[in-house]
Structures are given as structure tokens and as C-alpha cells.
Amino acid sequence: MLYLQKNYNLDSEKHLTSLNKEDYLPHIAFDSVIFGFNGKDLKILVLEYQNTGLFALPGGFLGRNESLEEAVANGVKQRTGINNLYLEQFHTFSNPGRANPEAMKQILEMNGMNIKAHDWLLDRFISVAYYALINFEEVDPVPDALADSIDWYSLDKLPPLMMDHRKIVQKALDTLRDNLDRKLLGMNLLPEKFTMKELQNFYEGIYGEPLKRTAFQRRMLATNTLERHEKRYDGGAHKAPYLYSFKAPLKKK
Amino acid sequence: MLYLQKNYNLDSEKHLTSLNKEDYLPHIAFDSVIFGFNGKDLKILVLEYQNTGLFALPGGFLGRNESLEEAVANGVKQRTGINNLYLEQFHTFSNPGRANPEAMKQILEMNGMNIKAHDWLLDRFISVAYYALINFEEVDPVPDALADSIDWYSLDKLPPLMMDHRKIVQKALDTLRDNLDRKLLGMNLLPEKFTMKELQNFYEGIYGEPLKRTAFQRRMLATNTLERHEKRYDGGAHKAPYLYSFKAPLKKK
């Protein structure tokens, strides 16, 4: 949940300056759920803080003169090393009990940061949450100075996450599923032309369960967002499946 | 954007206490877009502040020990007089330029509130925005102590709204349109059984434009969320339309 540049030296003054109370609005954080999908497996990007055993979503704080969109674009890049990631806001979490000052103290201590100078980090925060969906085979995340590691974890093998981060992941997943039809076009996770089977693989990956082929095909065609092209010939022509693409611009339902 | 109980006396100490800096988290507000629809016209609920000519969405602030959901449930009830309104969060607005301290000063002055004691209200705020959709013929909104009036305004006759409230309305409208199919069931704006024509009226009201009957019917039936019942007989039996209801529970697509 901290926002720090990778190339800051841990023992330098810069390090402390970067989480200076005066530079941020109090009580407002952001977190990001970065889904990775390679056509088969769905994973999530998780940071592990230095020597704490604490796992968390990449996040940060809102600068005094920043919009959330600016804070998130810069913060996620610095925490994960991933450039040009478009993240979409999906929910703001505000349970008064979501703070975990003990864990935050531990992170500060393990990074040699003065707790008193950073006591604003122990306060209550609301968190504005964002998500993105990318192909995890195409990026190479880099942990920032506060983290030991940054890694892709399968949904069913997530480590225990700090605070309410597991709940944030679940809400992101619900949102992703709800918006799947509308979001697909922008995600660039399918080739320009794809077969119905490839599209079905994608949905099955996100839903985490097998879908019936005929019902899936009927539903997809009813959305009126697909355009049918030539068949994909691979030798055995009698079994060649049709290729589809998304109609662009994707019409709102 | 202020949060005040209707039954507070304007000149009492209670009034000031209710916007006491110590009781709220700084920099965090909420606003609500309450859509009213009677089957034909779509309107929005807007407050006018006492003697200022300033119009705004009903809103408020986040109490130190409250979740946003609690703050919104209580705040909207107090500002509009409407009970048991379920509001759904849709976006958090954070442009650093969205504050309007001059307008806020004017509201404080016109309500006899000490500006210095309430200077935290002149700071920058992010606003977590919520929306609801109700039948405006079934509720009777009551302005709170800070407002001259609270009224339903048609979308094309909205008065100029404070700060970025017009942008918040537009985003709420976009969200409502995007979510219409999924939200319909819970909104109680249609009778339990309705004709395809009644359903079409509803969509046309929200989209603000006429839709083609045959295409509309085909699209609705393809969603697989409607159950067909007997015809509605009204004498001229040969023209009697079928009645439909929503399948419950509404399956996620």
C-alpha cells in the first residue's frame, strides 16, 4: 500500500521525503488489482514486503495536488515496474476497521523508516480500488524498494493478504465478470480474429468453471458484438472453425 | 454537499456541532444522484441552498467512525427526507480543481455559520458518488435546514450545479444506462407483470430516445431474463399483448 520509487536508496533522505506527510492528503489511499491472463490461467499481482511476511496489492497515496488517476498511473508504475497500464476504478472501500496499524509499523520498521515521522500512515484510510487485465506473459514486474518480491499468484493460491485486500480482490473479480462482455474489446487479450473455442477458453478462465459449448455460442451470438469471418483452415478442412472478431466500435447494449 | 439533520435549529449550538471538524475525516465527501422515473419522465433531485442561488446534489461528509455506506444512508435521509433509499456507489471524483471555496463560504455565511470554525470545509475534497433510481411519484422530498428547496428537475432542465456536480450527474447516467438490464429487477419501477411495450417505455425514458419495437423485443428476449405469462385482456382480445416478468433470482450473464 506504499508509494515509493524503485530507484530511491533505502537509507537516503529521499526515501523518507517520498512519504512526507505534507505531500499527501491524509486518509486516502488507492489499491490496484492487476489481473494477468494468458488465455488459460488467471493470476493476480501481489507484493511481499521486506522481511515481514506481509503480502499486499500494489497501492499508494493521493498527492496534495494530484487526481486519483494521476496518483494511480504513477504509483502503480513505480510499485510494479509496469508501464502504460490502464487501470479502471471500480470501488472505494471505507470500513472503519480496515486499518492495520501494527502491520504498517512492521513495514516501516523493516524498511528503517521512523515511525513517529510517518505516524499519518497508521491512521484510518479509505482505499479507492482500481483493476486492470493484462497478459502476464508480456510483462516483467519489478518490485519496488519496500518489497522483497512481486509475483503473479493464481486465484486459488493467493497468500494471505493484508487488511481487506482479499475482499478487494473478490470485488474486482465480481466487477470483471460483470463487465466481461463490454471490456473484452479493449483488453487485447485475444488475437484480432479468434475462434469461438478461443473465446470460450477466455470466459472459462475468468469464471473459473467450464461452460457448455452450445449455450455459450448462442449467448455470444445474441450479444450482436461479433462479426463472423472466413474459416480457419489447418489441413483438416471439414473441421475448420469460423473466425470471429469484435465489431468496432463496440456498441453499448 | 453538507450533512445536517433537518430538525437541528439553525441558531443552536447543535447546528455547529454537527459540522465539527473533529467529527469528520478531512478531504472526503459523498454526493448522491437520485434519479426519479415515473414510467415516462426521468428527473434528478437537486437542492437549492438558502439565499445563494447555488444548486447542488444532496451530499455530505464521512464521520470519523463511519463507513461510507453508513454516512450515505444517514446523510441522504437527512438531506432529502427520503427513507430506506438504497444507493449504489459508482465513482470517486478527485480532480484537485473541483473545490469551490467561494461557494462554500457563501453557503456558510448565508446559514449564519462561522467560517473560521468551519474552514476545513473550504479544503480540497474527493467525492465518492452514489446513485439510486426511484419512482418520483412515490416520495415526497423535504429540504434540510441548509436548503431553500429540494426539487425534481428534468435532465434537460437542470439548473447550473455547483462544482463538478453536472459531471457527476453525467457519469451516473452513463452508469445507469450501462447497468440497466442488470438493475431493472431491483428497482421496483415496473409492475410485477408488464408488457413488452411498458418495458420499452422504461428503456426509452432512460436512453432519452425512441427505440425500434422489433429490435428491442428481440434483444430483450435474447437476454434470457424474462418469463412470458398469459396475455393481458382488455376487451379487444385480438390485440392483447403478452405479459412478462423477470426471472428471479436474476442470473448473472
UniProtKB/TrEMBL annotation, chains A, B:
It comes from the Bacteria. CDD domains: NUDIX_NadM_like (cd18873). SUPFAM superfamilies: Nudix, Winged helix' DNA-binding domain. Pfam families: WHD_NrtR. Residues 25-175 form the Nudix hydrolase domain. InterPro entries: NUDIX_hydrolase-like_dom_sf, NUDIX_hydrolase_dom, WH-like_DNA-bd_sf, WH_DNA-bd_sf, WHD_NrtR. This is ADP-ribose pyrophosphatase YjhB, NUDIX family. The lineage of its organism: Bacteria, Pseudomonadati, Bacteroidota, Flavobacteriia, Flavobacteriales.
